[in-house]
Amino acid sequence: MQLRRIEGDLWEIPREGRMRVPGRVYSVGPPVPDDPALQQVANVAHLPGILRFSLAMPDIHWGYGFPIGGVAAMDADHGAVSPGGVGYDINCGVRVLTTTLEEEVVRAKLHAITAQLFRDVPTGVGASRAIPRLSDGELDEVLAGGARWAARRGFAAAGDDAERCEEGGRLRGADPSAVSERARARGADQLGTLGSGNHFLEVDRIAEVYDAGVAEAFGLVPGQVALQIHSGSRGLGYQVCDEFIAAIARSRGEFGEDYANLPDPQLAAAPIASALGQRYLGAMQAAANFAWANRQVMTGLAVRALLHTLGISERDLGARVLYDVCHNVAKLEEHEVDGARRRVLVHRKGATRAFGPGDARVPAPYRAVGQPVLIPGDMGRYSYVLAGTARAMTDTFGSSCHGAGRLLSRGEALRRGRGRAIARELAARGIEVISRGKKTLAEEMSEAYKDVAQVVAVMDGAGISRLVARLEPMGVIKG
Amino acid sequence: MRLALPQPHEDLGHTADVGVRVRGATAEEALARLVLAFAALASGGAGVAAEREERVAVAGGPDLAGTAVALLRELLYRLATEGLVPAACEILSADAAGAEATIAFGRRDPELHAEGADLKAVTWHAARLEREGDGWVAQAVFDV
After folding, report:
1. Which of A64, A196, A300, B134 is a good FRET partner for A122, with 20 to 30 A between their CA atoms?
2. Active-site positions of A?
């Protein structure tokens, strides 16, 4: 594959063949031309209605259909929606809660806190029953209400949790009736559960602040403790995506040649305006709301665990949601394209919204500085909080990276982890880790991931999002 | 041909997810091995004691690879909702229109199968069920 450097860490895959636009890749170091993820960037450029570029963030790695770290904005009237461009874990995302607890207070009871979180937040394969099983009517309310549903039922850190989420913690276009019986059966008892793989709940210390003014606006104080939750829509979201990819794959001939001849069957796409496209968008948004409710329930469970273990009041805990971002989603947004405001559907597959200062879609407390951009790293090193920028609005449809990005396959990580006691290694560095699965710690060890510091440095250097603070793990629970 | 666990499969070395490739003398044999590779991922390679046998039929398409994906999707749904893991499999028929199989299912045991992967979905990316050389090859990438 041919690549040319545009500037700094930004590279272009020139348009060729049936590509509708060029690819643009932000990269930690020069991209490796035979990386299959780059071919996926080029493949996405074939989708009907794609605008400007098929984009990839510096945490890009080989996915299925879209690369992970991919961004594609489609013309809302004439473009395509691709369920694979959202992914199976619809609204997989990250939430950070700040507290007024000092690091020393938590470190003194770190084992008890981590163990209590592990008991109270179900983790692992098929984890379920965090809360009583929902009736069909209650599930409809979750699918329509998102984070607000859970907050109303007392799962909350403070009174304004939902307002401090992207989109206020719910997408208004959700259509619960488009969520099948199978999806409901698969997810109904998984609300409030973490799942497995790269999902986690962390107790972090705010290790360093890079921009004091923005950190103050975000409520990030060095030496204080934050919680970080990474999870998504669980089995319900997986099933929604699965069913719509299959339905669209079966119907692809109906939408014309541009849709029938995409270079990867996982890119299966339907016109946004088609009945099938609209039904998918309704179901996908309902699943996104399920994910927000999921993280909101876990917020309530985690706050209760801290209160119980430390024996303190809510006031002493001082917990509040800093922000909650989704990094697997497609959203209808307005952006300036070639000098005109246009309604576009932005697919973010492993990418985070990064709207800049002054944007009315950013919650009022952050509007002057840009939205918080939450970028988890790996369980042994650090995570970052950044802020969205005006440059992101002009260059990447208001998008940034979403994490470190995997470096090793899970099989290779297991081979390299053989004979090592990962939990003991982390404990020696002051990080308490509890995991459900026996293989998880090897699959998720730091060496399996790129260094997220390098990834966020690319975004900061390109002006796509600005470094605000670094969080370092103290306690981690994994599936 | 009825095949039972364990069966050989190759790891595709996919960075974020898990991919497997299997081979067989016929399409049916390759597809049966793909079913059992799925079972091996779900069980972490530990044994699965068959409890009941069932005939499973799925509509497939638009091609043979799509049929392989359709059968795996059905089995993954049963795994996710009922904890059922294939222990043995015979593919009775497989073509672009669909597949029919007799599958002996066991149950996922949280302790015995603790090293099993949390398979979220069967993707269509790089899915294959096609002739290669003198035999057949089947492969699938699972989202984990």
Report:
1. A64
2. 402
